[in-house]
Amino acid sequence: ISFGAIDSALSSLKNCQSYINSGMDVATQVALDLVQSSNDEEDVNNMEKVMLEYAIMDRELNHYIKACEETINQVKREKPEILPDLENLVQEKFLEMKSKKSDSDFQTNEKYMYFKDQLKEMKKQCHGNDTIEQIDEDIAVTRSQMNFICPITQMTMQRPVRNKVCGHSYEEDAILNFIKQKKEKKKKVRCPKMGCSHADVKESDLVPDEALKRVIDSQNKQ
């Protein structure tokens, strides 16, 4: 096997990564649909199993890509007179990486963690007020609608993003502008949600709050 063959294989593997990412996005949307429409626990659990399988594939793929890249760099650096068996070297490095990882590592996959987070939020948004509703339906609706309001604009959010650190949501443009203004003044950004102690909001902490957006859109249609 030559350097050219490995480069070609790497290109194909990276294409596979994009297919895995797309599959994970679709699985997330399907799971959120299931919670929103029927909350069939078995079907939702099946989608989580699908996400785990994707996460495992992604981890294996990342290890193999890294093994290929490290092997090529090592051989190029050492410049041996006789080119070694690159395929065997890659396989050895791949197995070495694999042995160092625990089975739970794939659960730190970014898309899998996002799936878990959004699933939890969707269940909370759709079914979290059941107990309150039995006491007073008006209170439940009011509390739910308060979650729709951006703490910066004080208006119903259209494109909510969620802070992974403190769990609060904001209108995307509003929080990004807020962060930008503070950066220009070289100041840290405190979470604008009243009572929140998180004092260093970063753009990298923000993820689309698909669960909240779905509930807001559903409420607006009624």
Largest sheet: 3 strands, antiparallel
Secondary-structure element order, as H and E? HHHHHHEEHEH
Strand content: under 5%
Give the count of structural domains.
Answer: 2
Which value, in Å, is the CA radius of gyration? 23 Å
Q: Can you list the strand order of the major beta sheet?
A: 2-1-3
Please tally the β strands and state the result: 3
Spatial shape: globular
* Mean pLDDT across every amino acid position: 83
Could you give the distance between the termini? Answer: 62 Å
Low-confidence stretches: 130-143
Portion of residues within helices: 55-70%
Work out the helix count: 8
Query: Helix/strand/pairing class, anyone?
Result: mainly alpha
What does this structure look like?
The chain has two domains: 124 residues, no CATH class; 61 residues, Zinc/RING finger domain, C3HC4 (zinc finger) (Herpes Virus-1). The protein is built from eight helices and three strands. The chain has a three-stranded antiparallel beta sheet. The longest helix is centred in the N-terminal third of the chain and has 38 residues. The chain is globular, with a radius of gyration of 23 Å. The protein is 66% helix and 5% strand. It has 222 residues and is mostly helical.
